[in-house]
Amino acid sequence: MKDKRTYTNIKEYGEDMSYENDTSITNEDRGPGDLTLLLEQHQKEIWAWKQKEMEWNRTLNLLEGNKKIVEELSSKLVDIRKFNQNLEAEIKNLQYDNETYKEEIKKLLAEKHK
Questions:
Q1: Is residue 76 scored above 60 in pLDDT?
Q2: d(CA 73, CA 83)
Q3: Kindly report the CA angle at 23 between 19 and 29, in degrees rounded to 5?
């Protein structure tokens, strides 16, 4: 009588001794021409392509944003170069003025000491 499954303790009444729940049922007996299998495969492919499209759109948005940033920085760089050239020209004019004023001061001091 030992080979018969029986509960030996009171706590075991909540457990399933038949182990019927250990097996799982799979419906993979469908053939390659089964319409539901084809639909599932196509839905998975569509989902994958939609994910790729979303990634491409994100990348495109980043690219467009980066292009705008590059354009803005390029225009600012051109403005800074123009401003720098104007400042260099002004520095040359001031240096010339400084030299002429030095010469005039030397002439005036020379006349004063005569």
A1: yes
A2: 15
A3: 160
Give the type of residue at 108: L
Query: Distance between CA 26 and CA 20 in Å, rounded?
Result: 15
Q: How far is CA 84 from the centre of its chain?
A: 35
Supply the DSSP string of 2-41, one letter for each residue: TTS----SGGGGGS-SS-GGG-----TT--TT-HHHHHHH
CA angle 55, 57, 63 (to 5 degrees): 105
pLDDT at 107 over 60: yes
Contact 17, 5 (CB under 8 A): yes
